[in-house]
Here is the input.
Amino acid sequence: MKKRILVTGGAGFLGSHLCDRLLKEDCDVLCVDNYYTGSKQNIAHLLDHQYFEIIRQDITFPLYVEAEQIYNLACPASPVHYQRDPVQTTKTSVHGAINMLGLAKRVKARILQASTSEVYGDPEVHPQTEDYLGRVNPIGIRSCYDEGKRCAETLFFDYYRQYNLGIKVVRIFNTYGPRMHPNDGRVVSNFIVQALRGEDITIYGGGQQTRSFCYVDDLVEGLIRMMNSPAQVVGPINLGNPSEFTIRELAEKVLRFTESRSKLIFMPLPQDDPQQRQPDISQAREKLGWQPAVSVDDGLKETIAYFKRLFG
Ligand code: NAD
Ligand code: UDP
Ligand code: UDP
Here is the structure.
């Protein structure tokens, strides 16, 4: 019998790569998505697969299906997308989590939540360990995402304590790769698209803020290891690449790899934009035997190749 797996947000960037990987591992995959930020194009190559199914559905509404494992990825992830309809963003995180947890409880499925480094807010602790409680503004423009994801974590842990549900919570740090949305406003896609089109590269602030970028294949490996880890490993566990650099360094790498002559320009830093972000992945190393394997240079080259194909 093939393992039946539900992936919410399966037509998105991370979700579509996860579906690819699960099908390669001989699973029966049900993808649920409302195409808010995802696209049919991301999963077009899977539509003829015998063990791939898709339901167009908003997870803020109840869903009655069967599954043994649920990966809950549905949620817009980039600031541009999650700020477009902030009320819907909170609903997706909170009502969506309640529905998927209710579903998991009914069918006794294991359920994994794709949480985020954003639960740490603009952190005073560096690098961030899972026991850091965060510094999040509850009323800012990022709050719909940050607080929504924090409340989803609360719900996961209460279903665990109250109903003994098999939960897994991972906190994903900036991830990039092919099938990122070209207009999602995230830094990697923005810089690559700008460089390929010969447009100015928009650095927000002085470009001295840091991030650490994980390639999508590494991240998917981490999700699968977490889902299949022993029952007592519930998380939260950070997944990300600890190699940290400044946004300016990223811009310079993109210029070099695209051989672009775009200019760097400096624009205002958005509100609540964290100055530093780097995961401490000791727990993932120890409990999942996981660490990223793809270097940023290799990952960027793959991603640039994808955007070149996309733009013909
Ligand atoms: P994405 O926007 O490409 O994918 C999200 C998917 O969820 C899309 O296909 C979208 O259509 C779908 N969706 C949104 N709201 C929905 C709803 N109410 N019902 C059903 N489907 C809905 O984003 P992504 O980068 O693939 O992120 C996937 C998950 O990982 C998100 O939960 C995100 O918060 C989390 N995450 C991603 C990153 C990253 O760097 N990519 C970092 C931290 C956390
Ligand atoms: N739910 C769902 N699919 C299911 C089971 C439940 O979508 O297969 C939703 C349903 O809308 C419910 C929510 O999950 O309101 C929470 O379910 P739970 O059983 O925890 O609570 P209750 O049904 O008591 O509200
Ligand atoms: N950023 C930038 N130029 C852009 C897009 C983003 O300088 O065109 C900066 C942004 O201000 C932030 C960093 O790059 O400091 C990462 O931004 P992103 O939105 O990708 O992710 P997040 O802020 O969620 O880590």
Remarks:
- The longest helix spans residues 86-107.
- The radius of gyration is 19 Å.
